[in-house]
Amino acid sequence: MLLEAYFSILVFLAVAFGFATLFLGLSWLRGKQRPYSQKQAPYECGFDAFDAPMQNARLQFNVQFYLVAILFIVFDLEIAFLFPWAISLDMIGWPGFCSMMIFLSTLTVGFVYEWRKGALDWR
After folding, report:
1. Contact yes or no for 51/31 (Cβ under 8 A)
2. How far apart are CA 74 and CA 4, in angstroms?
3. Residue burial 25-57, b: 16+ Cβ < 10 Å; e: rest
4. What is the largest CA-CA distance in the chain?
5. pTM for the full predicted model
6. Do 114 and 71 contact (CB within 8 A), yes or no?
7. Counting beta carbons within 10 angstroms of the beta carbon of residue 8, is it exposed (0 to 12), middle (13 to 18) or buried (19 or more)?
8. 47 pairs with which residues across the strands?
9. How many CB atoms lie within 10 A of CB 64?
10. How far apart are CA 61 and CA 6, in angstroms?
11. pLDDT per position in the chain (123 positions), as tens?
């Protein structure tokens, strides 16, 4: 029957959920619960917490945070796709090589943009 093929996956998910619940519960029970004001203060991307709720959309952020995030994505995507491509290069041939060169050139454009905007400068 078709459902019998998925039974092992269901058992795996149940065991994983059980272990996750067990370990989270144990860590909560055994952990020291000593909250204080500094520990419970919100932390927003390197900025102090906003005083007024309406201030969130009106405050200007430094673009440096966004440029660093874009830079991380550029390098993360590059590494994530280069390893499987390098392993399977003999099977995918020239079409795979050309598509990866297009992908790498797109990432290079993003990297050059980051560089020209000053995301790589240490301040």
Report:
1. no
2. 43
3. eeeeeeeeeeeeeeeeeeeeeeeeeeeeeeeee
4. 63
5. 0.45
6. yes
7. exposed
8. 44
9. 14
10. 49
11. 677 888 989 999 999 999 999 999 999 999 888 877 776 666 655 555 555 555 555 566 677 777 778 778 878 878 888 888 888 888 988 998 999 899 889 888 878 887 887 777 766
Residues 6 or more apart whose Cβ sits within 8 Å of residue 30:
none
Q: Where are the domains of the chain?
A: 61-123
HSE of 89 in the Cβ direction (CA atoms, 13 Å)?
10
pLDDT at 117: 79
DSSP 61: P
Cβ atoms 84, 92 nearer than 8 A: no
Radius of gyration for the chain, computed over Cα atoms and rounded to the nearest angstrom = 24
**In residues, how long is the chain?**
123
